[in-house]
Amino acid sequence: MDSGIKERLDEFIRRKGLRRTVQREQIVDIVFSKDEHFTADELFGRVRKVDGETSRATVYRTLALLVEADLLRQIDLGESQITYDPNFLEKPSHNHLVCIDCGNIVEFEDGNVDIQTDCVTRRLGFRTIRQSIKIEASCEQLRLNGRCQNLIDSRLSGKRLRRKR
Amino acid sequence: MDSGIKERLDEFIRRKGLRRTVQREQIVDIVFSKDEHFTADELFGRVRKVDGETSRATVYRTLALLVEADLLRQIDLGESQITYDPNFLEKPSHNHLVCIDCGNIVEFEDGNVDIQTDCVTRRLGFRTIRQSIKIEASCEQLRLNGRCQNLIDSRLSGKRLRRKR
DNA sequence: GTTATTGCAAATGATTTGCACAAGG
DNA sequence: CCTTGTGCAAATCATTTGCAATAAC
């Protein structure tokens, strides 16, 4: 975990007159221990393994806190549950490609895309605050070779596949 | 309303072995009578004005039907309710800019953006199926002049402003 | 001590679903 | 007829909230 996160959270907590608690510490540790996306419920599961007392409500409230502090971002993958992405600190303007074959999510950063969209924004008379791009795509490997390395990798790593809402 | 819609729906209904009903006819007429985005509940309100019998369930079921037939699309504006966009038939690859000042939603189509993102997609080893871009932006007019024509327009037209989830 | 935070359980709110009856083909 | 569609009310499910007890500071 990037060591700056705790400091930024402490700063946010101080500025807002809030308090440091063991639950918040634990949840933050878990959220930023991996670079994987997660839902509130998945996080609750991981938190419960560490501390069997922490409540679902506290998990939700801490997620809202982290989003407000701009340490964590909600992303839309078209599922019924909100997905959280802990990687915006490292990759501030990344976007997501979702493979419709295997459900894998690929993060990408591309300056040219950012420039193009910002150009459109200015042409329309606005100033970009934030943008999100979701690309749904099919796997070229799977189409050509009948198999897809991403799919194999995700099976091996046990990554969560995409569910429809 | 584009006259092709009814035909495409009929074709879909025939192909699937489904049935034409008065409720579906009415809902489709209402959905495509304007180019405005709407939620299921807003649509239900409009439908009820025409036919006081139609149920909320039928509205939801017909929306799902239209989405499946690819006549209507769900878009994510970060609200708790799903937003439906009836304009993809006319503008097949448009995207959305949301003004954080006034909540206005501006649709735009831009070939260069599409080319850039498709380029990224191919570089990653995928083939684009569909993409959606959401730009959150502030109004330059408001920043410079202290007022925003979009905001004034939306007040005048009584357009729905954005709610947070 | 004062105020924020927590856990619990209940509430919320959008959407979905089971079922008996209605209606399309 | 036979099956799909509808309306109703109940169910679902993620998320939020009220409240009394607890813990920061």
Short description, anyone?
Chain A is α+β, with helices and mostly antiparallel strands. Chain A has two domains: 1-90, Arc Repressor Mutant, subunit A; 91-165, 2-Layer Sandwich (Dna Ligase, domain 1), CATH 3.30.1490.190.
Poorly predicted runs of 5 or more residues of chain A: 157-165
* N-to-C order of helices and strands of chain A: HHEHHEEEEHEHH
- Going by CATH, the architecture of the largest domain in chain A would be Orthogonal Bundle
Number of helices of chain A: 7
**What is the residue-averaged pLDDT of chain A?**
89
- Class of the largest domain in chain A in CATH? Mainly Alpha
How is the CATH topology of the largest domain in chain A named? Arc Repressor Mutant, subunit A
Taking the sheet with the most strands of chain A, its summary is:
3 strands, antiparallel
Question: What is the overall silhouette of chain A?
Answer: globular
CATH superfamily of the largest domain in chain A: Winged helix-like DNA-binding domain superfamily/Winged helix DNA-binding domain
Terminus-to-terminus distance of chain A: 32 Å
Number of strands of chain A: 6
Query: What count of structural domains of chain A?
Result: 2
Strand order of the largest sheet of chain A: 1-3-2
Alpha carbon gyration radius of chain A: 18 Å
The level of helicity of chain A is: 40-55%
Q: Oligomer, anyone?
A: homodimer
Chain pair forming the biggest interface: A-B, 36 and 36 residues
The structure class of chain A reads alpha+beta
Q: Kindly estimate the percentage of residues of chain A that lie in beta strands according to DSSP.
A: 15-25%
